[in-house]
């Protein structure tokens, strides 16, 4: 009886925080860093003493642990995705928000169990205890997600401490690491809407010419007007646009870039970090020191 009461209380808390998390993602163009989602839930939801208690074994706050635990169900259900600390609401997740919080969680858990059953090809043993500690795979995934999130947030804090010209130089260094030549990197002052110009060859003979706009706005979304401003300086002779931000793009900005007749590529902070990691080995030592990385390897999984 006591265990069932704990289970019911935990599921009720889980349905509340999961529903709130997906709702927050929807209100923020469908994606936010996981840390920001947690912070917004804390501001929007009143938690009682039991929900705010810390587990003795881990010292983690109960509602936050339960949130992270059941996001795995939502990922397996296709309601959301996680990419290097970023939480992304899917179309299926947006549809699921039409259900009640309890029904949404039940569907997510059912789909997770279907996936787990196929994975094991055996009868699945599910522990619904309050501490949720017996599902080893799920806890391992949560821990890895949290570590990745902490790593990304550390990189973001480092980048946030830069001034706009330092971030601009970081973007130019990345382009060189990718094999491009950057004969023009805007000095301080007016840049005419272009911060970097990149070519595929040293003389700039081979098209296209890449015109890059860089915005160091870590806590803001790039608007559609800013995308149109870049489009306005692209010529008709094969220029392509590249917009790089230390923040993110609004949904309208993404639509504008996607439907434009002139090609324009958008790189938000998460995409920038992914590229920096992928091409880090091709940077010079001086460029690496602009945003130094230290790789740490964990035992992985094919799941």
Give the strand order of the largest sheet, numbering strands 1, 2, ... along the chain.
4-5-6-8-10
Rg over alpha carbons: 22 Å
Question: What integer is the average pLDDT?
Answer: 87
What is the percent of helical residues?
40-55%
What are the segments in which pLDDT stays under 50 over at least 5 consecutive residues? 123-134
Overall number of structural domains:
2
| N- to C-terminal distance | 36 Å
Q: What best-fitting shape do the alpha-carbon axes yield?
A: elongated
Derived from helix and strand composition plus strand pairing, the structural class reads: alpha/beta
* Biggest sheet layout: 5 strands, mixed
Strand content: 5-15%
DSSP strand tally: 10
Number of alpha- plus pi-helical segments: 11
Order of helices and strands: HEHHEEHHHHEEEEHEEHEHH
Give a concise summary.
Helices cover 50% and strands 13% of the residues.
Explained architecture:
- By secondary structure, this protein is of the alpha/beta class.
- The chain folds into two domains: 2-160; 164-288, Trna Endonuclease, Chain: A, domain 1 (3-Layer(aba) Sandwich).
- 50% of the residues lie in helices and 13% in strands.
- The longest helix has 26 residues, at 2-27.
């Amino acid at each position: 009886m006591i265990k069932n009461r704990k289970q019911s209380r935990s599921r009720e808390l889980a349905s509340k925080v999961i529903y709130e998390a997906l709702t927050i993602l929807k209100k923020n163009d469908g994606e936010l860093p996981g840390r920001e989602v947690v912070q917004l839930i804390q501001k929007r939801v009143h938690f009682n003493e039991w929900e705010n208690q810390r587990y003795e074994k881990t010292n983690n706050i109960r509602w936050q642990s339960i949130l992270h635990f059941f996001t795995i169900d939502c990922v397996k259900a296709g309601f959301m995705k996680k990419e290097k600390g970023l939480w992304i609401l899917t179309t299926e997740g947006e549809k699921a928000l039409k259900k009640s919080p309890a029904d949404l969680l039940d569907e997510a858990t059912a789909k997770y169990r279907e996936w787990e059953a196929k994975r094991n090809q055996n009868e699945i043993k599910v522990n619904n205890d309050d501490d949720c500690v017996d599902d080893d795979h799920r806890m391992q995934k949560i821990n890895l997600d949290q570590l990745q999130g902490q790593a990304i947030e550390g990189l973001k804090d480092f980048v946030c401490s830069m001034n706009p010209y330092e971030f601009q130089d970081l973007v130019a260094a990345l382009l060189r690491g990718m094999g491009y030549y950057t004969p023009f990197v805007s000095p301080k002052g007016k840049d005419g809407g272009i911060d970097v110009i990149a070519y595929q060859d040293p003389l700039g003979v081979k098209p296209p010419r890449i015109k890059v706009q860089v915005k160091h706005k870590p806590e803001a979304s790039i608007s559609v007007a800013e995308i149109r401003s870049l489009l306005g300086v692209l010529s008709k002779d094969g220029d392509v646009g590249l917009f790089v931000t230390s923040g993110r793009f609004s949904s309208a900005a993404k639509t504008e870039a996607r439907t434009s007749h002139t090609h324009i590529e958008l790189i938000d902070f998460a995409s920038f970090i992914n590229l920096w990691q992928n091409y880090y080995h091709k940077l010079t030592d001086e460029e690496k020191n602009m945003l130094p990385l230290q790789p740490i390897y964990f035992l992985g999984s094919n799941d």
